Amino acid sequence: MTATLTHQNKKLEIDLSKPLDISLPIKNQSRLIAWYLDSPKIQPVKEGNWVAKVSEGASINFNTIWFNPHAHGTHTECVGHISKEFYSINQCLQKFFFLSKVISLQPEETTNGDSIFSKDMLQEKIKSQETEALIVRSLPNSVSKKQKNYNHSNWPYFTEEAAIYLRNCGIKHLLIDLPSVDKEKDDGKVLAHKAFFNYPKKPRLDATITELIYVATHIKDGFYLLNLQIAAIENDATPSKPILYKIKNL
After folding, report:
1. How many Å is the maximal CA-CA distance in the chain?
2. Is 46 domain-assigned?
3. 3 state SS of 114
């Protein structure tokens, strides 16, 4: 099955038969956590001796889920994540298919022990107006990312200059395989978030950041069609399921 996408007056052929899922699901008692929260819970409803689980005698499975979208699994957020004003990702994200580019980046170590993604690194990988969405795979790309406890890990982050560069390049949707584009402990500055969303000067309401993805090693760097699927929740962020499709003629 194929579809076509027009980009810069060129028709691109999309292979829809082999979707590439780059999301990490919310699982009961998952070890994938961030922001100092406990693991998510998925448990059957209980009323007295009755348990809403077919294997325990009920006619249905009827679970309640406790989770935080920012801490448990792949999630997509809008400017509402950092704004005084309320903005919902369910309202801000109105289009769901985008030309995207996957790039792999080895973070640079700084003199203070941090690891960063700099403007110079991005300039080598992404050019102005060549794509709407950018998917960053950090290196090394161990499968341990799928079940990593990121608490107190000081993960790599984007510099403010790097985020401004991406914004100026026309990137509206930034996807990364880390809990945040910002430093874990930055005293609440969230400089990369503010720079990418252009907040508070002129907020980009149609821009999104997706975090805690996983781009398998067999997915090569290059261009893809991105389908950015979100749950219909009126919140600054929601669990999401980004899917990539190969482009046959690009």
Report:
1. 64
2. no
3. coil
Domain range enclosing 235: 2-25+69-247
Strand residues in 79-181 grouped as ranges (E): 97-105, 108-109, 115-117, 133-138, 157-158, 173-176
- Strand segments (E) across the chain: 2-7, 10-15, 20-21, 41-44, 46-47, 50-51, 63-66, 75-77, 97-105, 108-109, 115-117, 133-138, 157-158, 173-176, 208-211, 222-230, 237-246
Q: What confidence score (pLDDT) does residue 237 get?
A: 98
CATH number assigned to the domain comprising residue 177: 3.50.30.50
Does the reported pTM lie above 0.70? yes
Instruction: Retrieve residue 26's tokens.
Output: 């919310």
Domain count, the chain: 1
Domain for residue 239, yes or no? yes
How many whole angstroms separate alpha carbon 231 and alpha carbon 73? 13
**Average pLDDT along the chain:** 96
Tens digits of residue pLDDT in 173-209:
999 999 999 999 999 999 999 999 999 999 999 999 9
**Strands 75-77 and 208-211: what pairing?**
antiparallel
- At 6 the pLDDT is 79
Cα–Cα distances (Å) from 80 to 199, 220, 247, in that order, read 10, 32, 33
* Mean pLDDT computed over 116-143: 97
In a domain, 47, yes or no: no
Cα-based angle 214, 24, 179 (whole degrees, multiple of 5): 70
